Amino acid sequence: MTAKNMDELVALCKRRGFIFQSSEIYGGIQGVYDFGPLGVELKNNIKKAWWEAMVYENDNIEGLDSSILTNPLVLKYSGHEDTFTDPMIDCKSCNLRFRADQVPDKCKPEDLTEPRQFNLMFKTNVGPVEDGSNYAYLRPETAQQIFINFKNVLDSTSKTVPFGIAQIGKAFRNEITPRNFIFRVREFEQMELEYFVLAGDDDKAHDSWVQKRVEWWEKQGVPIESIELYDVPSEELAHYSKKTIDIMYKFPHGVEELEGIANRTDFDLGSHSKKQDNLKIKSSVRINSHSNSKLAIQIKPEEWTVPYVIEPSAGVERAFLAILNEAYKLEQLDGGKTRTVLNLKPHLSPVKAAIIPLKKNNNDIVKKAREVKKNLQKLGLGRIIFENTGNIGKSYRKHDEIGTPACITVDFETLEDDTVTLRDRDTMSQKRLKIKNLANHLVNLIAG
Ligand code: GAP
Fold first, then answer.
1. pLDDT above 60: residue 2
2. Mutation to probe ligand 1, out of 182, 190, 230, 256 (largest number of atoms < 8 A from CB)
3. Atom 14 in ligand 1: which residue has the minimum CA distance?
């Protein structure tokens, strides 16, 4: 059973320190959130899982971490200055502004203005003079910096197609109506791969990436039953796309896009290239009079081609929400009790293990527990917590609720035979284990 409604997830996130409203003490800022102590761990673990699956498991994929501030020319030639817009409508009665497809029923048609196009990019001034002539955009997608670094990566890594460039980083969109908690926000992170192939190999590569991405989601605890593939109809395609498959997920507020996998053709590399006439570009690119680079590969002497691009693009916040929603369970226990548990995949859990001394004032037990914590922490598996509340039951409940897969209790027996009690989050079963075997146990648990 997934979460009944978004409110339960929002309450858990606030109560346990996953997510807070940004600038909360000053009334907040709409569509912007902060990730708390557990949120940052879960978020980092999601990004790590993506990075490992992309960059470390594929020798033909390289990483990039590019700037957020973007030269306006990049977004001119990418098409964002002209087309990255949403139609907005004002309601003259409630004085609010909505995306044209999200006007609430309470607004009467006679109170609504005609739709006007609104560009979603954030602009900022660069340097000390604020006369509007020196501005940059906060990138609306991480993809463009990948395209404009195509040559740099190619030349420095001696790659040839097919190859990919992966990036995780912030993107900013001045959404007209941010909503549904972290689903639609103004500041978010994307995990994007641009996978370059020869024209003609693009359809097959596209199908293959859709398949791989669905498999990845399953490994993160988002099962195939909660996913739908949406073949975006031509009239809804972005200006650069020949075909896009959206991975749709059953969020608490409805079925919506979790990740988009687009065939961006040769549009982006072609649009950012100089001397476009010599490159046999197939899509209708923007004529470029500023670029000083040919974003193409040489296939024969005198013959250049602009690769096609397959782009799996996922939002970290949406991943967070889907993973949390799937993991969240309210279980009925014997005796009419309930427990809240996050059945997160252990590699995603914010805390991997809690080390709990049975008696918080017993120096020998506490010392031993600290030693266990220190040694397990050294394994580099993620966060191991020393939890000295003196209340085992309360500690178990807390760690169930934040998804800690293992609780390890150090007691009097430990001092005699070097064993501990290991409690499993999902089954709540307990067993004794030698301290020397804990490392192996945790490594296997987290590897899945
Ligand atoms: N580079 C392609 C691109 O940006 P997109 O469909 O606009 O395509 C890709 O965005 C992904 O980024 C989406 O599937 C979603 O997961 C995430 N995303 C987009 N806008 C978002 C927003 N306002 N808040 C949170 N996530 C967002």
1. no
2. 190
3. 259
